[in-house]
Amino acid sequence: MNTMNKLKKASLFFLFITVSACTTPASNGQTSTTPNPTATNPPSESVFTAAEVATHKTPEDCWMIISGNVYNVTEYVKKHPGGTEILRGCGLDATQLYETKGGKEDDTHSQTSRRILETFKIGTVVN
């Protein structure tokens, strides 16, 4: 085998290894090259009913609806700066609780907390 063929084979092998290392499985069984920072949650394209969300109402399995979106905040429960206040929304439409920080009409969550919340989005709710 000549040197040029060896170089081509080595280049293809390197390309294969690089692409394989940079891809992640997508939820549809295909491969995605985009990293998924919320790999523990299903993709945000899922649609749930309020009844489905209602079955996730414990500290160990806490989903909530906020402004029509569904969030699996289970991993965040222990990290919540407001302590156990977050548990009031488990399994419920927690929009009012979230927008008023648990009922404080003059207080709202920060932009940082809204960005954090978005990382837990798993879908939307149907009426």
Structural description of this entry:
The chain is of the alpha+beta class. It folds into two domains: 3-32; 46-126, Flavocytochrome B2, Chain A, domain 1 (Roll). The chain has four helices and seven strands. The protein has a five-stranded mixed β-sheet with strand order 3-7-6-5-4. Strands 1-2 form a two-stranded antiparallel ribbon. Strand 1 (24-25) and strand 2 form a beta hairpin. It is globular, with a radius of gyration of 21 Å. The model is unreliable at 10-40 (pLDDT under 50).
- Which structural class should the secondary elements be placed in? alpha+beta
Largest sheet: 5 strands, mixed
Number of helices: 4
How does the overall form come out from the CA principal axes? globular
Question: What quaternary form is this?
Answer: single chain
In total, the number of strands is 7
List strands and helices in order, with pairings.
Elements: H1 3-22, E1 24-25, E2 31-32, E3 46-49, H2 50-54, E4 57-58, E5 61-66, E6 69-72, H3 95-99, H4 111-118, E7 121-126
Parallel strand pairs: 3-7
Antiparallel strand pairs: 1-2, 4-5, 5-6, 6-7
Keywords for this entry:
127 residues; alpha+beta; Flavocytochrome B2, Chain A, domain 1; two-stranded antiparallel ribbon; 4 helices; 7 strands; 20% strand; globular
How would you sum up this structure in a few lines?
30% of the residues lie in helices and 20% in strands. With 127 residues, it is an alpha+beta fold. The strands form 2 sheets. A 5-stranded mixed sheet has the order 3-7-6-5-4. Strands 1-2 form a two-stranded antiparallel ribbon.
